[in-house]
Design goal:
40% helix; single chain; 108 residues; 5 helices; Glutaredoxin; alpha+beta
């Protein structure tokens, strides 16, 4: 299984459906963003750790500028947590897996 299989990259068409149920973390990223690339394995790990509790997805901001604007994603990496389709938290910038785990545990 490649890394891309763990956390699906979503299109704008899939996005609303993907976030409308449960708790969902969306990773807003770009291919040219070094911190984003460094966070990718962390997000993969977290998606395993929180399996069944939090659903993970990715949005490429270059391909989905409209979505990025809708959620005020001005800097990346940018992680937005949704609950039943509503934004409940936003984390900006890279962080160690432990710190990210602690932040997410508050919501489950």
């Amino acid at each position: 299984m490649t890394n891309n299989d763990k956390v699906p990259e979503l299109s704008k068409a899939e996005f609303d459906d993907f976030v409308k149920k449960g708790i969902v973390l969306i990773d807003f990223f770009a291919e040219w963003c070094m911190p984003c690339l460094m966070m990718a394995p962390v997000i993969d790990e977290l998606s395993e750790k929180f399996k069944g509790k939090i659903k993970f997805g990715k949005i490429n901001v270059d391909d989905n500028q409209e979505l990025a604007q809708r959620f005020d994603v001005n800097s990346i990496p940018n992680f937005i947590l949704f609950k039943e389709g509503k934004k409940i938290e936003q984390f900006v910038g890279g962080m160690p897996e432990e710190e990210f785990t602690e932040k997410l545990e508050k919501f489950i």
